[in-house]
Design a protein that fits this description.
The protein is an alpha/beta fold and 280 residues long. The chain folds into 2 domains: 2-173, 3-Layer(aba) Sandwich (Rossmann fold); 186-278, Pantoate--beta-alanine Ligase, Chain: A,domain 2 (2-Layer Sandwich). The chain contains 11 helices and 9 strands. Helix 8 (151-163) links the parallel strand 5 and strand 6 (169-173). Helix 7 (124-139) packs across helix 8 (151-163) and helix 10 runs antiparallel to helix 11. The longest helix is centred in the middle third of the chain and has 16 residues, at 124-139. The structure holds pantoate. Pantoate is lined by residues 28-30, 58, 61, 128, 131-132, 150, 153. Pantoate (PAF) binds next to strand 2 and helix 7.
Length: 280
C-alpha cells in the first residue's frame, strides 16, 4: 500500500492508474476506522480496480471546536487495517493540502440541508461539501463510497456530485452494527464504559419503532421514541424525525407513498451519536 500525504504525490500515482484505465474508487473517511469503514472498502474493491482511502479530519465540518479537538486520530492503526484489507493507496493529507487557502465556497443544497443534521449543526454540510468536492477533484474517482449511517450526508453528497463537472457514481452502503445493535461510529470509542453499555438502547428503540410503524400516528411515534430514549439516564435526544427517504422532508402522516426513515440524534454527553432505520 502506498501512503501519501501530498496532492502532488497522489496525482503522480493516479496519473498512471488513469492511463491504465483503472476504475478508481474513493472511500473518504476521517479515520479511527472500524468495520463500517471496512465494509465501504470491501464494496469499493468489488466494484473498482484501484481503491483509494482518504483520511482527513476536516476542520470545516465541525461546528463545535471541542468535538474537533476530541475527534479520535489513530493513523498508525488505520494504515495497518487498510493494508490488511488490500487498499492500494492511503491518502492522509495535512490541512494545507486540502485547503491551500481558506475555502470560502458556499454550497446550496436547498431543502435537503434545512432539516435534521443541517438544522442542528449549522455549516456542517457546507464543510462536508468543501472537503468532499476537493477530494473528488484531486482523485477524480469513478465511484465514491459512503455509509448510510450518515444518511443525510449521503443525500447531500449525491446532490454535490450532480453539481460537479466530473460526476463520480455515489454508492451508499448499509449501516454496520455492533453485536448489541449500536451503529458503528468512530465516536463510539469516546463513550465511557457506562455510556457504551447504555448506547444500544438507541438502535433497540428504533428497531421497536419499526415494528410499530404505521400503527401509531407519526407525531406519537416520534414522541414515543424520544421518551423511551430520554428515560435512560445516560442519553439525551437532540431530535427524532421521520422523513421521506428521497427528499428527507418530514413525513406528516401515514400512509406515505414512498419509503420513510426514522432518524435519531442523541447525546451521551459530550458524545453525539446518530442512527437511522428504514420504516417501510
Ligand atoms: O463521513 C465522514 O467521515 C466525513 O463527513 C467525510 C465524508 C469523510 C467528509 O469529511
Amino acid at each position: 500500500m502506498f501512503i501519501v500525504h501530498t496532492v502532488s504525490e497522489l496525482r503522480q500515482l493516479l496519473q498512471l492508474a488513469h492511463r491504465q484505465k483503472k476504475t478508481i474508487g474513493l472511500v473518504p473517511t476521517m479515520g479511527a476506522l472500524h468495520a463500517g469503514h471496512l465494509s465501504l472498502v470491501q464494496a469499493c474493491k468489488t466494484q473498482c480496480t484501484l481503491t483509494v482511502v482518504s483520511i482527513f479530519v476536516n476542520p470545516t465540518q465541525f461546528n463545535n471546536p471541542e468535538d474537533l479537538r476530541n475527534y479520535p486520530r489513530t493513523l498508525k492503526n488505520d494504515s495497518a487495517l487498510l493494508q490488511a484489507n488490500g487498499v492500494e493507496i492511503l491518502f492522509a493529507p495535512g490541512e494545507h493540502e486540502i485547503y491551500p487557502e481558506p475555502d470560502t465556497r458556499l454550497f446550496d443544497f436547498g431543502a435537503l440541508e434545512q432539516v435534521m443534521e443541517g438544522k442542528f449543526r449549522p455549516g456542517h454540510f457546507n464543510g462536508v461539501a468543501q472537503a468532499v468536492s476537493r477530494l473528488f477533484t484531486i482523485v477524480q474517482p469513478g465511484y465514491a463510497f459512503f455509509g448510510e449511517k450518515d444518511f443525510q450526508q449521503l443525500a447531500i453528497i449525491r446532490a454535490l456530485a450532480m453539481q460537479m463537472d466530473e460526476k463520480p457514481v455515489i454508492v451508499g452502503c448499509p449501516i454496520v452494527r455492533e453485536n448489541d445493535g449500536l451503529a458503528m461510529s468512530s465516536r463510539n470509542t469516546l463513550l465511557s464504559e457506562r455510556q457504551r453499555e447504555h448506547a444500544p438502547l438507541i438502535a433497540a428503540t428504533l428497531m421497536q419503532a419499526k415494528e410499530k410503524a404505521c400503527t401509531l400516528p407519526v407525531e406519537e411515534m416520534k414522541k414515543w421514541v424520544a421518551a423511551t430514549i430520554n428515560a435512560d439516564s445516560e442519553l439525551e435526544v437532540e431530535y427524532i424525525e421521520i422523513a421521506d427517504e428521497k427528499n428527507l422532508q418530514p413525513v406528516k402522516q401515514w400512509p406515505h407513498d414512498t419509503p420513510a426513515r426514522l432518524f435519531a440524534a442523541v447525546y451521551a454527553h459530550p458524545v453525539r451519536l446518530i442512527d437511522n432505520i428504514r420504516l417501510s
